[in-house]
Design goal:
Length: 812
């Protein structure tokens, strides 16, 4: 162990506290900005509080706010488990053991898929449109999103003067807020709602509804008596001075009836005159107006839709509308800042940093990759952190394929939770980026799936514990869906367990461990009951399964024991063992898990030097050699079963596989490759992959990941990869600057996290580490690795290590 006397005596790092950077340059570094309004959805700017989402377009003649609420999905509580599956299972296993892959696929399709074979889709609340009166050609237009404050701003000048708008979605007050200002009483607009469902405008029984908003009593609302259920189609009605109420039902889908009711209340406050007619509010003669939007559904949980959305939105609006705009804004900024301000990153500044964001993304080299722009790389990390805060908060739903933002009712892949990579990738950056609190919705979803998946395990496999396959939805459906080629994969729940275990490993939160252990135990029991012996004696394997979502050379994807399954189950068993022993529970069960783990078939290297995707050496003959998934490299990242320190032969094989697959895949596929090259310590290859990800082929003008179409996992996976280049923690070590590219010669990061409940600040110049600060538990021993050297250091009694300059020579 390195003696700590000298280290403890060195000066504290000259690093600003997280979130305290006050210069204009620092503020601009966390800003997306543009010189024109959004012409399409992928140019609009996202806002969210975890539950409510809004896309702001910044139009001059018409402002569009496209809205989402995270529980507005199609359908109703349902159970898709197929009781025929348990009889079909042994037949399918036998066919796979005999190498009859096509027949096995037919057997799965006929007898083991869920009913219905599709899950429900996420959907939009529709659009709030503000059509401006006397719109004129603007000059000096700029719109922006400040990530640190989570506020969009639009500012331009016309003959009427300077027009300004600010928008945010408040977590403390649970409303969407837009503030509009135009000088000299020239502000006027018509506000209406446009949705994907047939709309009926209900005539107001509030005579005239012409009000001087400056003097309107805030509680003088129209009371709407409801007769039974809300109408199947959406309805708009006046709901008091300056307010409208939108109500309706969700969509039926795939034979599952509509089961959710939703409500949205929109209220305008400020000066000027307001009238209601034909479902629209018209404001005239104002200088300032504030638009407040509250929305809710009747969703209580995956089995209960008895909530009262109208009562919810009225209660939320009553509280929010009683507060001045400045109070709403201040509370929002303080709450958001408490999360966003936990980490800062500076990778340097290039020539492109002064340009608008869309120009920076579109500036490419001859290969079509984004040119070196270190500040944009740092912005990519901060944008992902912002998106996670905005789409996943304690008490909300987890971030789905689109996070929380989607403008249709049947989005690509339903906007669901695809749990054979995409949902897990959404949470890869959470803990390293200081946002472990945002993982809570994922843990809650896993707890739900442990209940619905227990029915699936019993009904379809005759097994204990619980299982879920490659997708789930708001209703926590756990059966295999879509088609046998994609859906017959039993490790979705296990991978989710491993993802939440990572959250525990970073936080070392005993409360998380106590919640997680029963879930992991149930997932492990399922595999104890369903693993089978490989006929060739190579160990225990899953059957039937697949390597998501790749076909092997024999006209199918179905196999027994693909590499990814063995790796995921190996991690699941190891994590369950550690958790059970820490909690002192289930000794006999843990012995069985330990014995089964030892018998899992090991990873294999093929004749081409590649990391085998299947038990058989089929990779060279697979029909898609450049497949978007790199499932069998799970062992390298996000796991660390295969790593440069302990298993160099497997890492060499992983490199060969990545070279065979190519660098540019889907957005999330490219992001996974970035993480893998970073984990293997290849800085320049990782950086070249990053340039492909952040360029216009894989990044939209608003910085959303271009799958294409938009999927948010690429944003999250890309941010995780950048952080992997700067700091890694696996195998009991913390690796400092393990994959630092030449394009980032100097920089600093504060508040990045490592496993073991460690918070780390570090800085470097000309590629050399210059300062380091570690905060953790008092007297905790940390093993550091840097440039091939390893040193053990001990935190002081206050749980801190601070060091700069000469004291770092031990690591240089």
């Amino acid at each position: 162990m390195l003696g700590m006397g000298a280290l403890a005596a060195t000066p504290a790092l000259g690093l600003a506290a997280p979130g305290t950077a006050g210069t204009a340059a620092a503020k601009r570094s966390n800003t997306l900005w543009y010189r024109q309004s959004a012409a399409r959805w992928e140019e609009a700017l996202p806002l969210g509080n975890g539950r409510l989402g809004a896309m702001v377009f910044g139009g001059v003649g018409q402002e569009r706010l496209q809205l989402n609420e995270d529980t507005l999905w199609a359908g109703a509580p349902y159970t898709p488990d197929n009781p025929d599956a348990v009889a079909a299972l042994p037949k399918v296993r036998q066919l796979l053991a005999e190498g009859k892959y096509a027949e096995a696929t037919e057997g799965v399709a006929a007898g083991m898929m869920g009913k219905p074979i599709r899950q429900m889709s996420y959907g939009t609340l529709g659009d709030v449109l503000l059509t401006m009166q006397d719109a004129r050609k603007p000059t000096g237009y700029e719109r922006s999103l400040d990530l640190a404050s989570a506020i969009t701003s639009t500012r331009f000048t016309t003959a009427l003067g300077v027009h300004t708008r600010e928008s945010f979605v408040s977590a403390p007050d649970q409303v969407i807020v837009m503030r509009l200002q135009v000088p000299k009483g020239k502000l006027g607009f018509t506000l209406g709602w446009r949705g994907p469902r047939k709309v009926k405008a209900i005539a107001s029984n509030y005579p005239g509804l012409a009000t001087d908003l400056a003097n309107a009593p805030p509680t003088d609302w129209l009371h709407v008596e409801e007769a039974g259920a809300l109408p199947a189609d959406a309805a708009i009605e006046a709901d008091g001075p300056g307010a409208i109420l939108v109500t309706g039902r969700n969509e039926a889908m795939h034979g599952i009836p509509a089961g959710l009711r939703y409500a949205m209340r929109i209220q305008v406050t400020g000066d000027g005159q307001l009238r209601f007619a034909d479902g629209q509010l018209t404001l005239t003669g104002a200088t300032t107006a504030t638009v407040l939007i509250a929305a809710a559904t009747s969703y209580v949980n995956y089995a209960d839709v008895s909530g009262d959305p109208v009562a919810i939105v009225r209660r939320q609006m009553a509280a929010a509308s009683a507060k001045p705009y400045a109070t709403l804004k201040r509370a929002h900024m303080e709450e958001h800042g408490s999360l966003f301000g936990t980490m800062s990153i500076d990778l340097g500044t290039g020539a492109g940093a002064a340009n608008p964001t869309d120009v920076r993304i579109a500036t490419v080299d001859k290969e079509g990759n984004q040119r070196d722009d270190p500040a944009l790389d740092a912005l990519y990390v901060q944008y992902a952190r912002y998106l996670l805060i905005a789409s996943s908060r304690p008490g909300t739903q987890p971030a789905n394929l689109q996070g929380i933002w989607n403008e249709g009712t049947n989005p690509p892949w339903g906007g669901k939770y695809t749990i054979n990579i995409n949902t897990e990738m959404n949470y890869w950056p959470a803990d390293p980026a200081g946002l472990g609190v945002c993982v809570e919705p994922l843990l809650r979803m896993v707890e739900d799936l442990a209940q619905t998946g227990a029915r699936t395990a019993k009904t379809m496999y005759g097994a204990r514990g619980w299982v879920t396959h490659h997708n789930t939805d708001l209703w926590r459906a756990a059966a295999p869906i879509d088609a046998a080629k994609y859906g017959m994969w039993p490790c979705g729940g296990a991978w989710l367990c491993n993802t939440v275990w990572d959250h525990y490993d970073y936080s070392r939160d005993a409360g998380v461990l106590r919640r997680l252990y029963p879930v992991m135990r149930g997932a492990s029991e399922f595999f104890l009951d369903t693993l089978v012996e490989d006929p060739q004696g190579r160990g225990l394997v899953t059957s039937p399964s697949m390597s998501p979502e790749n076909s092997h050379p024999f006209g199918s994807s179905l196999v027994a024991g693909p590499a990814m399954d063995r790796q995921i189950v190996r991690d699941l068993f190891a994590h369950t063992l550690e958790a059970g022993r820490l909690l002192g529970q289930d000794a006999a069960l843990l012995e069985r898990i330990d014995a089964a783990r030892a018998r899992l078939a090991p990873d294999r290297v093929g004749q081409q030097g590649q990391f085998q995707e299947w038990l058989e050496d089929w990779d060279a003959r697979a029909p898609d050699r450049r497949h978007r998934h790199v499932s069998h490299l799970y062992a390298v990242y996000p796991s660390s079963q295969a790593n440069v320190r302990d298993t160099p032969e497997l890492v060499r094989a992983a490199r060969q596989t990545l070279l065979d697959r190519g660098d540019l895949a889907t957005g999330w596929g490219t992001a996974w490759r970035l993480c893998l090259w970073a984990r293997m310590g290849d800085a320049e290859h990782a950086y070249s992959v990053l340039k492909g990800l952040t360029g216009p082929r894989r990044t939209y003008p608003n910085m959303f990941d271009a799958h294409p179409p938009f999927q948010i996992d690429g944003n999250f996976g890309g941010a995780a990869g950048i952080m992997e280049m700067l700091l890694q923690s696996w195998g009991g070590e913390v690796l400092l600057l393990p994959a630092l590219p030449a394009a980032w010669p100097s920089g600093r990061v504060t508040g990045i996290r490592a496993r073991g409940a460690l918070t780390i600040d570090l800085a470097w110049e000309r590629g050399q580490l210059t300062s380091l600060r570690i905060v953790g538990k008092p007297d905790y021993t940390v093993t550091l690795r840097h440039q091939g050297k390893v040193v053990r250091v001990k935190l002081d009694a206050g749980g801190t290590l601070r060091t700069t300059g000469p004291a770092l020579k031990a690591l240089a």
